[in-house]
Amino acid sequence: MSFTKVKGTYDVLPAESPKWQALENYIRNLYGLYQYKEIRTPMMEYSQVIHRESEDSDMVTKETYNFKDKSDRDLTLRPEGTAGVIRSYVENKIYATSNLSKFYYIGPNFRYERPQKGRFRQFMQFGIEALGSTDASVDAEVITLAYETISKLGLKNAVVKINSLGDQASKSNYREALKAYLAPLKHKLSPDSQLRLEKNPLRILDSKDPVDQELLLNAPMPLEHLTEESMKHYQMLVELLSSLHIPYELDKKLVRGLDYYSHTVFEIHATIDGFGAQNALGGGGRYHELVKEMGGPEIPGIGFAFGMERLLNALEAEGITLSQEQRLDAYLINFGNETKKEAFKSLYELRNSCIHAEMDFSNKNFKTQLKDAIKLNAKYVIIFGDDELKLGQVTVKNTETQEQSTIAIKELVAYMKGFLS
Ligand code: HAM
């Protein structure tokens, strides 16, 4: 029997975790600046929160992890963040206390997909949801924040693609137009698209099948079927984005992989060599039915999510480093019993004064401890030698300049603080 990680998952080892922490800190700061507040919802939900009648996407129907708990309840591991946030928004009646609620979240999600580069079965997303307004300025803020997320990181080869599906009337106008156009071509469509033609024709626009793609070349597009009001909303959005010089491209075929969207949809793509087909770093859009579906009032929302693994891949591909090495100010070298006891006490006192310190716990010889200290990038080594200890002293040595001095143990914390301030 071998013990391995579950297929499609990965470990973040200590050498890698600083860049995750740096990305998370960056998100918290940036989203805080835009007045989004963090919400943390459970990783598992009752299945009906995820498996809603209106949601027929592959992600929900084919890719979720579903199981029963010991009391025979149907539970699902969340495949995305939005549904749980809306469930919590309704359950906690947050709408009653605020007319525009702005949330951000960071956490793991689960999809039973075929693993490949940038595609996992457990993956991390961060995202936002803004609930309570249909105004195009909220769409503009959300897309601006998605754009800022990548541009402030320094990613150059990323682009925002937008489209509008319009309101329910626009969507059903379009559905009919697309069906009418594709009906005579049905026999040429891929088997998947043939199935979708009746039930969910919009999803055909997403098909990767080259024959489907070709058949779609002259197909009607959602933007051409917007009601007057939906068109106005879209035009206001692009006007606002242009006023901030946010670069975007209209992608007339963009429909996204979930069924809850209406009006604005958007994606952030990275054109990065060797990145494979999974090049959407993030995506989102408006949803106007979700709050009601989960038992709340009629409240609209808009949001997005980014995949953190893909974003970190993209940063690496563009040579952008986020992380700082974890800092180590001092490494305490000791030689066994008495010196170890003294070093152990000093270690505690140094740490209490916010000095990042470590010591040797395993009685290695001097040379090896010195090597360890260098490997850990310690700025100073503090040597607790037997002879010095008798005089109540230690030697402090700068690992870079090699300068060293002997000081009284009781002065050590103040002395180190002086160095490091
Ligand atoms: P999504 O497009 O399904 O949207 O996922 C958003 C991002 O999560 C993707 O662009 C991708 O970077 C990442 N992602 C998705 N699946 C995987 C996977 N298997 N492995 C690694 N990364 C993955 C949503 O999830 C919506 N909830 C976004 C949203 C928020 N719409 C409105 N509000």
Automatic annotation (TrEMBL):
Highest rank taxon of the organism: Bacteria
SUPFAM superfamilies on file: Class II aaRS ABD-related (SSF52954), Class II aaRS and biotin synthetases (SSF55681)
Molecular function (Gene Ontology), one example: histidine-tRNA ligase activity
Keyword Magnesium: no
Enzyme Commission (EC) number: 6.1.1.21
Subcellular location: Cytoplasm
GO CC annotations, alphabetized: cytoplasm
Main location: cytoplasm
UniProtKB keywords: Aminoacyl-tRNA synthetase, ATP-binding, Cytoplasm, Ligase, Nucleotide-binding, Protein biosynthesis
GO terms (BP aspect): histidyl-tRNA aminoacylation
Reactions catalysed, as given in the entry: tRNA(His) + L-histidine + ATP = L-histidyl-tRNA(His) + AMP + diphosphate + H(+)
Pfam families: HGTP_anticodon, tRNA-synt_His
Ligase is among the record's keywords: yes
Amino acids binding L-histidine: E80, G81, T82, R111, Q125, E129, R256, Y260, Y261
Aminoacyl-transfer RNA synthetases class-II family profile domain: residues covered: 21-318
Enzyme class: ligase
Similarity section: Belongs to the class-II aminoacyl-tRNA synthetase family.
Quaternary organization: Homodimer.
Name this polypeptide is given: Histidine--tRNA ligase
Protein source organism: Acholeplasma oculi
Lineage: Bacteria, Bacillati, Mycoplasmatota, Mollicutes, Acholeplasmatales
